[in-house]
Fold this sequence. Notes:
Blueprint lengths: L4 E6 L2 H12 L5 E3 L2 E7 L2 E7 L14 E5 L3 H13 L3 E9 L2 E7 L5 E7 L4
Parallel strand pairs: 1-4, 5-8
Antiparallel strand pairs: 2-3, 3-4, 6-7, 7-8
Amino acid sequence: MTPDLMLLYVNDPAASARFYGDLLERQPIESSPGFAMLELKPGMMLGLWRKDKVAPAANQPGGFEMGLPVESDAEVDRLANNWAARGVTIAQQPEDMDFGRTFTALDPDGHRLRVYQPALRQ
């Protein structure tokens, strides 16, 4: 098996599709009142499923974080500034951590988006 779909439970699939479409520069490939889908890259989809329509009903005990790698520390900083200027909530300002430079943003439902430049491994 090879994973090909990541599902997020959201309040408003259309609003979430606009949010992700704008940030990731993609258009939904499927959209209905209860669901929207975007292609993240060939063979990997992001499904946005209306929370109150998920079957069976989901109780999310843990958190979720989507990792978005970029090519440079400067790109981490540029995106953090760009997203903040667009009204995206920045939960963690850009900083250097053990694994590299990173910042964390929140989508409209509070899901975490971690943008990072991996530190070079020795």
